[in-house]
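[09:14] KT: can someone run the structure on this one? pasting the chain below
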Amino acid sequence: MFQSLKAKFQQKNTKFATSNKGSVAVAYAISLVAISAAVGAAIDYSRAINVEAKMQQAADNAALASVQVASGSKAEMYAVAKSYFEENVASGLIEKNPKIKIKKITDGVRVTAKLKVRTTFLSVINIKNIKVTVLSEVAKPSLQKLEVVLAIDSTSSMSGRLSEIKSHAKSFASSLISGTHNNSVKFGLVPYSKYVNIGTSNLNMTGTYVHPSNSSWTWYGCMGSRSNVLDIRDDNYVINPAPGLRQKNDYYCKIRPISRLSSELTTVKQNISKLNSAGINEFAYLEPALLWSWAVLSSNAPYAEAGDYSSDLKKVIIMINDSTNTRGPNNAFSGGSTDPNHYNKSVSVADKRTRDVCANIADKKIKVFIIDFGNASVLENCAVNGGKYYALDDTDDLDDTFKKISRKIAGNDGSGVLRITR
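[09:31] RB: done, structure tokens below
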């Protein structure tokens, strides 16, 4: 992409290097010009690389969306791809609309985008712009059905990352759902901190009851743990319901409630947009996030939107985490305690229950991906059934990580919902 730029710059520099005319002062001045041009070239070059990376993200999202209407006309595909670039322009991701081309290929769609990035420093040596070109190819979706739950850490430490996470999550959900038919893709959300919140509107949900800890307190939606090993299983909710916690205030329930599986893209994106961090220094317990993600993917009570486990239905949990276990269940593994609160300070108990629920999820062939900013080693072995654990330092790698997850969801044989091939 930048070879012509390099050739022009070397040509200009060669003139300075081979010239033996003039005084030392003139030579010194010329050398300063060359050095300044080199520094300026690096700045312009860096900016062009940054634009290229953002354009590639936009092209991938456009290709993922347009492949969903690949059976339609080229005009329809172009309109879908163009809308994605315009959305990125409006959000400031890229500075202006590039020239885009859409082409149907054997098993999908190819999107090519070109943009001229105006230079600042290189313009003094008559290099007015740098041409940037990106390409993305995506295979057509298969007919296999997919259910995905995004479990997202909503403790206060996540607040600085949440905006970027929501942006990438909405693009990911769009690529999964857009243009699919017969509700073949469903997407749910499980925010979590020390507890999960199922929402007070679900008071009468089958398999849920409010724990009578203090009749004068209020239930704000927070869910505690069932006794002993029941809390690492997704069954028997009718006979042994999940307990809601009465509290003096909503201190631990300020996070968004769980969002049930939905195939409506507008609803899913709205739910993602409403995600919030707790805004307080909150303790964390990771096991409920995994357990309730499993519950949302299960057709058992208390949720019923999911399909039955079968070979033609993929179930996926993607957990985005910024915490380690700092609190756990009061009802430890022996003694018969039925206290559903999460005040226990034993990290070993919390870690064990987290590992155990992961093992049970693995047995159900649910594919689990962990995107971890918190170095929670207890989660490393949770990435099962073809999933993967990704340890990230910041959100800069999120786009690439979601692409990798897309490929892994598709599977090595190319089956699945989507597949970025180039």
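[09:33] KT: thanks! The first helix runs from residue 3 to 18.
[09:34] RB: yep, looked fine to me
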